[in-house]
Write a structure and sequence with these properties.
The complex is a heterodimer of chains A (405) and B (264). Chain A is 41% helix and 18% strand. Chain A is an alpha/beta fold and 405 residues long. The relative contact order of chain A is 0.16. Chain B has one domain: TIM Barrel, CATH 3.20.20.70. An 8-stranded parallel β-barrel of chain B has the order 1-2-3-4-5-6-7-8, surrounded by 9 helices. In chain B, strand 5, helix 8 and strand 6 form a beta-alpha-beta unit. In chain B, helix 2 runs parallel beside helix 12 and helix 11 packs antiparallel against helix 12. The model of chain B has no long low-confidence stretch (mean pLDDT 94). Classes of the chains: A alpha/beta (405), B alpha/beta (264). Chains A and B meet through helix 1, helix 8 and strand 11 of A and helix 5 and strand 5 of B.
Chain lengths: 405, 264
C-alpha cells in the first residue's frame, strides 16, 4: 500500500489547519486524551475489543451493493452504495462512538458528554453508554430537537440526559458550545465524546481513525468484486467524519477521484447554506470550536448562521483535514441544495428501496448528477452514511413537491 | 516602558487592593461603554478588561454570553471598539486590556490589529482561546508595539507548562480561580491560592485572579495572596439589570460604578 501523506504534526496541524485553540483549562485534558488515544491505538486488547464490538454489536462489515435501478436511471457510470445506514443505530456515527466510548472506559471516566445535530451521534453515544454502563449527557440545539424528534425519544429511552440548547442559532454549533462549557467545568471526571472530525487536536485525527474502517472495507470489498479500485467516491460533509473515513484509505490512490458534498441549502447568500468551500459563499479560514479551518463568518469574524434541510450538515465550519485536502486539491468539494437533496432522497427510496438520511441524500443526488456525465465503464461508490427514519416527519410536508419540477 | 507593570507597582506602593473590572464592549451600546470606561477609570483600577463580543463564546457563562449577544445585535465590532478607545485623550482611561476570542483578531489581521491597538494605547491583550503554543504570531506583532499578551493559567495547568507560560508572559498573569466558564456561582476553592503560589514561585510578574469573584469579601481574600481580583460577570449582570430597568443610560452607568466601587 502506498504511503499515506495526510497526517497532522504533533500539534495537530495539517499544514495551516487544525491545532488546539481552546482555553487553557482544556489543554491538560486534551494532552491526556492525546496520550491515551495513542496508547489505546497500540494496545492489542483494546483493538481486539473494538473489532469484536464492531462485528457483533454494530454489524460490521457493512455491505457494498450495486444500485442497479439507480444506475439505469442515471444512464452512465455504475453506482455502488456503501451501506453504513445498516449499522446498529442507523448511521456511521456508531463507529466513532464505540471507539471513543471504549477509550473513555479505558481512561476510567464514567461521565460522557456529547453534542448532536441530526441526533445520530447523540443516539450512537447514548447507545454505547448503555452498552458500557456509562452516564450520558447529550446537548442538542432546540431547532434540531424539533426537526429530529424521534432521535430525542431514542436517546431518552437509552438512558441519556438530553439537554436542549436555546442559545445562538439553536443548532449543532450551539450544542458544541454547551458541551465545551460543560467539559471545561469538569474535565477531570468527564469525557467529551465529540462526534465529527473537528474540534481541537486530537479529535479530528481520532475521529478519522475510528471512521477509517469505512474506506478500508470499501477498498477491500470493491477490489474483491470488481478486481480494481472505484473511479469515484462520493460522501456528504457536515463536519466531515463519514467523508474522511471513506476517503482516507484512498488518498494515496491518485487515480481515484474523491468528492465531498456540502449542503448548498436554499441560496448562495450567507445564512442560506452550509457550504464552507462554496465560491462567494462567505467561507474563509478562521477559528471555531478549537480548530483552524474554513468557517462561514462575516468580515468581523463573527460566525454565521447556516441553513440546510439536513441537521447533520447544518454547521458553519468543516474539519481541518478537509481544509488541507481542499487546498492541496486531492479532494474535490461540491455542493447540493435542499431541493436536489430531496430528489435524491425520493429517488433512492423509489428505485432502490432504501430511505437515506437527508445528509446522505446530498451525496446520492450528486452521484446521480455525476453518473450521467460519465461512461458506463466508470464506477462511483456513494457512502450511504445513514438511514432516513429520523427525517420522515420533516420531509412529510415536502415529499412529492419536487416531482413536478 | 511597560504600563501594566507600572500600574501594578503604583498600586503596590500605595498599598491599595488590586481591582480589575471587566465589561463587554457595546453592552448596552458603545456610547455607554465609553461612559463606563471613564467612570471605572476614576476608581483607579490597575486595569480595565474590555471584552470583545464573539458569537460563540465557549469559555463564558450565561451572563457574559447574553451581554455579547446584546452587543453584537447593536452591531459592535472590534474595529468599532478600537475607534471608541481612540476617542479618549491620552491617559484619560485606566490601563486597557482587550479581552477577546481569537477569530475576531484573526480576521482583523495580526499586524493591523497590533498597530490599531497601539494607536489607542491598549496596554494588553488577552485571547481566551489562544494557548501559549499557538500565540507566537500574535505575540510577535504585539511586542513590536510594546503591548503585553496576557496569558491565562488554570488549576489544570501543569508546572511544566506554567514555566513555559511564565517565560512568554509579560504585564501580568491571569490565574483562573477554578475550572469552568465565567460567572457561574460557586464557592472559590482553595485551588486558586495554591495556583497563585505556584505562579509566584516561577515569576515576578503580578498575578490577577478571576472567574467567579462576586462579592467584596471574596475580592479581599484573593488580594491577600494575589495582586488583583478581576470582577466580570458580577458587573456585567449589574449592567444587564440596570439596562432593563433604567430609563436612561446615565442610570446604567451610575449603577455599574456603584457596584464596582465595593471592590476597590
Amino acid at each position: 500500500m502506498k504511503k499515506l501523506w495526510s497526517e497532522p504534526n504533533e500539534q495537530g496541524f495539517w499544514g495551516d489547519y487544525g491545532g488546539r485553540f481552546v482555553a487553557e483549562t482544556l489543554i491538560a485534558p486534551l494532552e491526556e486524551l492525546t496520550r491515551e488515544f495513542h496508547a489505546a491505538s497500540r494496545d492489542r486488547t483494546f483493538q481486539r475489543r473494538l473489532t469484536e464490538l464492531q462485528r457483533d454489536y454494530s454489524g460490521r462489515p457493512t455491505p457494498l451493493g450495486f444500485a442497479a435501478r439507480l444506475t439505469e436511471h442515471a444512464g452512465g457510470a455504475r453506482l455502488f452504495l456503501k451501506r453504513e445506514d445498516l449499522l446498529h443505530t442507523g448511521a456511521h456515527k456508531i463507529n466513532n462512538a464505540l471507539g471513543q466510548g471504549l477509550l473513555a472506559a479505558r481512561m476510567g471516566k464514567r461521565r460522557i458528554i456529547a453534542e448532536t445535530g441530526a441526533g445520530q451521534h447523540g443516539v450512537a453515544t447514548a447507545t454505547v453508554c448503555a452498552l458500557l454502563g456509562l452516564d450520558c449527557v447529550v446537548y442538542m440545539g432546540a431547532e434540531d430537537v424539533r426537526r429530529q424528534e424521534p432521535n430525542v425519544l431514542r436517546m431518552r429511552l437509552l438512558g441519556a440526559d438530553v439537554r436542549v440548547v436555546e442559545s445562538g442559532s439553536r443548532t449543532l454549533k450551539d450544542a458544541i458550545n454547551e458541551a465545551l462549557r460543560d467539559w471545561v467545568a469538569d474535565a477531570r471526571e468527564t469525557y467529551y465524546l465529540l462526534g465529527s472530525a473537528l474540534g481541537p487536536h486530537p479529535y479530528p485525527l481520532m475521529v478519522r481513525e475510528f471512521q477509517k474502517v469505512i474506506g478500508q472495507e470499501t477498498r477491500r470489498q470493491f477490489q474483491a468484486r470488481e478486481k480494481k479500485l472505484p473511479d469515484v467516491l462520493v460522501a456528504c460533509i457536515g463536519g466531515g467524519s463519514n467523508a474522511i473515513g471513506m476517503f482516507h484509505p484512498f488518498l494515496g490512490d491518485t487515480q481515484v477521484r474523491l468528492i465531498g458534498v456540502e449542503a448548498a441549502g436554499k441560496g448562495k447568500r450567507i445564512g442560506e447554506h452550509a457550504a464552507r468551500f462554496l465560491r462567494g459563499g462567505g467561507g474563509k479560514p478562521g477559528v471555531l470550536h478549537g480548530t483552524l479551518s474554513y468557517v462561514l463568518q462575516d468580515d468581523a469574524g463573527q460566525i454565521s448562521n447556516t441553513h440546510s434541510i439536513s441537521a447533520g450538515l447544518d454547521y458553519p465550519a468543516i474539519g481541518p483535514e478537509h481544509a488541507f485536502l481542499r487546498d492541496s486539491e486531492r479532494v474535490e468539494y461540491v455542493s447540493v441544495g435542499d431541493a436536489e437533496a430531496l430528489k435524491g432522497f425520493e429517488m433512492l427510496a423509489k428505485m432502490e428501496g432504501i430511505i437515506p438520511a437527508l445528509e446522505s441524500a446530498h451525496a446520492v443526488a450528486y452521484a446521480v448528477r455525476l453518473a450521467r456525465t460519465l461512461p458506463k465503464s466508470k464506477t462511483i461508490v456513494v457512502n450511504l452514511s445513514g438511514r432516513g427514519d429520523k427525517d420522515l416527519a420533516s420531509v412529510q410536508p415536502l415529499v412529492g413537491k419536487t416531482k413536478k419540477r | 516602558m511597560n504600563s501594566l507593570k507600572e500600574s501594578f507597582e503604583r498600586k503596590a506602593s500605595e498599598k491599595r487592593a488590586g481591582f480589575i473590572p471587566f465589561i463587554v464592549a457595546g453592552d448596552p451600546d458603545l456610547a455607554t461603554t465609553g461612559r463606563l470606561l471613564l467612570g471605572l477609570s476614576k476608581l483607579e483600577p490597575v486595569a480595565i478588561e474590555v471584552g470583545v463580543p464573539f458569537s460563540d463564546p465557549t469559555a463564558d457563562g450565561p451572563v457574559i454570553q447574553r451581554a455579547a449577544q446584546r452587543s453584537l445585535a447593536k452591531g459592535t465590532s472590534l474595529a468599532g471598539i478600537l475607534n471608541l478607545l481612540k476617542s479618549f485623550a491620552p491617559n484619560e482611561l485606566a490601563q486597557i486590556v482587550l479581552f477577546s476570542y481569537y477569530n475576531p483578531i484573526f480576521q482583523f489581521g495580526m499586524a493591523k490589529f497590533a498597530r490599531a491597538a497601539a494607536e489607542c494605547e491598549v496596554a494588553g491583550v488577552l485571547v481566551v482561546d489562544l494557548p501559549a503554543e499557538a500565540a507566537a504570531p500574535l505575540q510577535e506583532q504585539l511586542r513590536r508595539k510594546k503591548i503585553d499578551l496576557i496569558f491565562l493559567v488554570t488549576p489544570t495547568t501543569t508546572n511544566l507548562r506554567l514555566k513555559q507560560i511564565a517565560r512568554l508572559a509579560s504585564g501580568f498573569i491571569y490565574a483562573v480561580a477554578r475550572t469552568g466558564v465565567t460567572g457561574t456561582a460557586r464557592e472559590l476553592r482553595d485551588e486558586s491560592e495554591s495556583l497563585v503560589a505556584r505562579i509566584h514561585a516561577l515569576t515576578n510578574l503580578p498575578v490577577a485572579v478571576g472567574f467567579g469573584i462576586t462579592n467584596r469579601a471574596q475580592a479581599r481574600r484573593v488580594c491577600r495572596y494575589a495582586d488583583a481580583a478581576v470582577v466580570g460577570s458580577r458587573l456585567v449582570a449589574e449592567i444587564e439589570a440596570a439596562s432593563g430597568k433604567a430609563t436612561n443610560r446615565a442610570e446604567v452607568v451610575r449603577a455599574a460604578i456603584e457596584c464596582a466601587r465595593q471592590f476597590v
